Amino acid sequence: MIPLLALASPGWLWLLAPVAVLVVLYLLAQRRRTTYAVRFATLPMLERLVPKRPAWRRHVPAALLLLAFVVMAFAAARPQVDQQVPRERATVIVTVDVSLSMQATDVDPDRLTAARAAAKRFIEGLPDGFNVGVVEFAGSAAVLSEPSTDHDKAISALDRLELAEGTAIGDGVLTSLAQIKALGTQTTNEDGSEAEPVPAQIVLLSDGTNTVGSSIEQAESAATEAGVPVSTIAYGTPSGTVEVDGQTVPVPVDQPSLDALAEATGGQGYSAETGEQLDEVYDDIQSSIGYRTEPRDVTPWVVAGALLLGLLAAGFSLRWFSRLP
Q: What transmembrane ranges does the database entry give (predicted)?
């Protein structure tokens, strides 16, 4: 992706006005020159007096010089591009649905096994300075690993995920928020100055609809108030089924509810129907959490471009006309 260019001081673009005037004056001069030559010389005489060379050459140095002026005007406006900078710290709570529907085998070998493996790879890829915790939820929510920089502890906790009845998505979010609040965030540096708050995010994977416990609306309100985005992953296929008391029960994914939760809290809603897609989703989340976007001043590069254009204009003019433009 090509980074978007922004201008820190766009007011300086008024310098383009005199450049535009120069362009108009140049065009007028060329028109007068042609008129004068035709008026005071016959065509055969012109052919003897004027050396044969491509007509476009005489315009190249002027065009390059004018372009250099344009680039310098943009340099004065202090151009900037967005740059991805790795975060040193953050808190991430991996919240996993362990309701009975997660035993569906529409995902190989089953939803829970594939989700566990993908979550482990996700945690392994997070920066070492990140605090990572693990929460599971079914009929209620439970903390399997409190957030810390011990990522191996969080990965091991995923092996303790156990299926149970019910789907308490709201409780899963509220329990995750409580873990973030208990950990706290640094608000001052060692010298006493105010520090940037440590960002936090909940990554919630589920395949169903909230059936027990706190409502989705309560979870949305609490997460919004705390300023913690909830990124959701709707995992599974519309054709998923499980066996309950000898009967086949359909367990389709409720993506709209999860997307609504993500949107309301400032997170991102995802969906995945295979283990490979789930890995891609976690990779995208990892990238968004692990980096922050900062503007980078590229004025020196733009100035260098203007200088190069000016040098080219001078070089062509000396080579073809033995003079500077």
A: 12-29, 60-77, 301-321
